[in-house]
């Protein structure tokens, strides 16, 4: 004769069946929120007060950005797409290059970002940027 | 005679899915508030193919729209108050990273105003934020 042993079943008072769904949704939520908040761009070092550096004139590369967004490199207009290549060429000849970017106050911010991108891409260590002051002319 | 004893079942409301509903509601409200926050300040991010992740543990985001209006935490702010806020943030945590999120079509002089404040405060680094992905 078979004896049936009745096992006492535990009662799921809290109803934990949906807990795994909940945990998964929580993960998705945090991933989505984290993606919203990530800033990408360029970190630029700002000059310190009284931190004058002595530079060799030969190592300085002046890049001027006028109000139309034209890039002047050694007094020649260079298309913004070719700035990177031009700097790269100069950098191979002179690895100690210091890039000085002079920006016209009325130029679109996008143009500035494009030039900064080119410089950052090439890992130019010495890079400085400043806005053209009133009455000041491009050199 | 066998008398069947009726076992009375206590009435209950199934609340298994209540937590799911509550959580989805929470997500919905949070996402909507986030979308609204971004809509208030219309900024066309500058674009760049090459970019680095500039996010830090503590971040201080300054937004500049097309007209050069400066925003902090969604509110318009003047340069003097901005200076005070930056000082406060840096005093609390010197590692706070300052992000400039400016409209790509704004004039550079609007961005330079903020950079000048940071230079004045002797802040060492600034993050110029571009469009991600």
Describe the structure.
The complex is a heterodimer of chains A (139) and B (133). Chain A is of the alpha/beta class. Chain A is built from 3 helices and 6 strands. In chain A, strands 4-3-2-5-6 form a 5-stranded mixed beta sheet, with helices on one face. The model of chain A has no long low-confidence stretch (mean pLDDT 82). By secondary structure, chain B is an alpha/beta fold. Chain B has 3 helices and 6 strands. In chain B, β5, α3 and β6 form a beta-alpha-beta unit. Classes of the chains: A alpha/beta (139), B alpha/beta (133). Chains A and B meet through α1, β1 and α3 of A and α1, β1, β5, α3 and β6 of B.
Which oligomeric form is depicted?
A: heterodimer
- Determine the N-to-C terminus distance of chain A: 107 Å
Beginning-to-end CA distance, first to last residue of chain B: 81 Å
Q: SSE order of chain A, as H and E?
A: HEEEEHEHE
Instruction: Give the overall shape of chain B.
Output: elongated
Instruction: Enumerate the strands of the largest sheet of chain A in spatial order, edge to edge or round the barrel.
Output: 4-3-2-5-6
| Overall pLDDT metric of chain B | 86
H/E element order of chain B: HEEEEHEHE
Contiguous helical run count of chain A: 3
Largest two-chain interface:
A-B, 40 and 52 residues
How many DSSP E strands of chain A? Answer: 6
Structural class of the helices, strands and pairings of chain B?
alpha/beta
Described by the principal axes of the CA atoms, the overall outline of chain A is: elongated
- The strand count of chain B comes to 6
Features:
heterodimer, A: 139 residues, alpha/beta, five-stranded mixed beta sheet, 6 strands, B: 133 residues, 3 helices
Short synopsis of the structure:
With 139 residues, chain A is an alpha/beta fold. In chain A, 30% of the residues lie in helices and 22% in strands.
